[in-house]
Amino acid sequence: MPGETFTPYGPSHAAVLVVLAVLAWWLVRRGQAARGTRAANRLSTGFAIVFLTLTLPLQVYFNLPGRFALGLSLPIQLCDLAWLAAIHALLTRRRWSAALTYYWGLTLSIQPILTPDLDAEFPDPAFVLYWSMHGLTVVAAVFLTWGLGIRPGWDSYRVAVTATAVWAAVVFAFNAATGTNYGFLNAKPDSASLLDLFGPWPWYVVVETVLIAAVWALVTWPWTRQPAPERPAAHDTRRTGPG
User: Fold this and answer.
1) For residue 124, is it within any domain?
2) Does this model's pTM top 0.85?
3) Residue with the larger pLDDT of the pair 30 and 189
4) Structural domain of residue 71, as residue ranges?
């Protein structure tokens, strides 16, 4: 309600988690039933349109003069890029954007869902944007992978690692030029965080990079051990890279 503060694992958080879980289950069931057909494409495109309708106007709203802050507002965090990758993957079913949605969505965007850093309570626009962006990105990753059958492989892994390395280099340079700290690439957060366990800069960046690469390898390996699906999703034959 207006004026109230969001409480992690309070009523609104629990409600959002239930909605996201039910939505993911429903989309996976529908996607599996229609896999490889125009109906699956329509379902995916419809999801993308709803996703954009919920998030794009609010992104514009929070970047209007008076609300914009250089160090906070630019959509250049990896979770922001995961949102864009998810929209692209839902609209096109391309393997490269589905790969980014899988790795960024299921290992990065899921963290703000489980450990939310949010003050605004429903129906504040900040609440709606936060949960729409993070929550629907994770749902999109689940739908694309288990619903449409766009499975990751080692080619997908290479795409995600390369794209993340390019992002880190560009954002690091941007931070250095503007005095910002997107991605905590140039300095640790002021408050205590898990990064404190990884040593001083730049070593915590190195440790974090190695851990992410290892986790992504672990969530890739099981898919490479399974036979290909009998009915691949539309455009699922497009490769993400050499392999």
Assistant:
1) yes
2) yes
3) 30
4) 11-224
